[in-house]
Specification:
By secondary structure, the chain is of the alpha+beta class. The chain starts with a strand and ends in a 13-residue tail after the last strand. It is 25% helix and 34% strand.
C-alpha cells in the first residue's frame, strides 16, 4: 500500500492565538502519534513568522489515514475554521527517491518515468 503525507499549514491572526493553539495541539496530538499506521506526526512553528504553524503527518496507508480521520471527526468534530485566518491542507502520495545518474528517481523502479527526465 502507498503511504500518505499530509501537510497542514496554519496561519494565525495574533501571537496569542498561535501560542494558545500550539499549547492545545501539543497535548491533543500526543495520542494521535500512537494510532495504528502513524509514522510521523510533527508540529513545527516558523522562526521568521511565528504566526505560521505546520503540521506534518505521515501515515502508512490511505485506509489507515482514513481510519484516523473518521475517528478524529467522531471524537472531536470538524476543525473550527473561525480560529484560523488561513488554513491550507496538502495531501501527497509518499514515495522515496534515490539519485540515479544525477537525477532523482523513485526508489521503486515501477514508479519511474521513462518519458520525462527532470534535470
Amino acid at each position: 500500500m502507498t503511504a500518505v503525507r499530509v501537510v497542514a499549514t496554519l496561519t494565525f491572526e495574533t501571537q496569542e492565538k498561535a501560542d494558545q493553539a500550539i499549547a492545545a495541539m501539543t497535548v491533543a496530538h500526543r495520542p494521535k502519534r500512537q494510532e495504528e499506521g502513524c509514522l510521523q506526526y510533527e508540529l513545527m512553528r516558523g522562526i521568521e513568522n511565528p504566526l505560521k504553524v505546520v503540521l506534518h503527518e505521515l501515515w502508512a496507508s490511505k485506509p489507515l489515514y482514513d481510519q484516523h480521520w473518521l475517528t478524529q471527526m467522531a471524537r472531536e468534530g470538524a476543525p473550527n475554521p473561525d480560529r484560523l485566518s488561513v488554513a491550507k491542507l496538502e495531501f501527497y502520495v509518499y514515495a522515496e527517491y534515490v539519485l540515479l545518474d544525477d537525477v532523482w528517481q523513485p526508489a521503486d523502479p515501477a514508479q519511474r518515468l521513462s518519458t520525462v527526465r527532470w534535470a
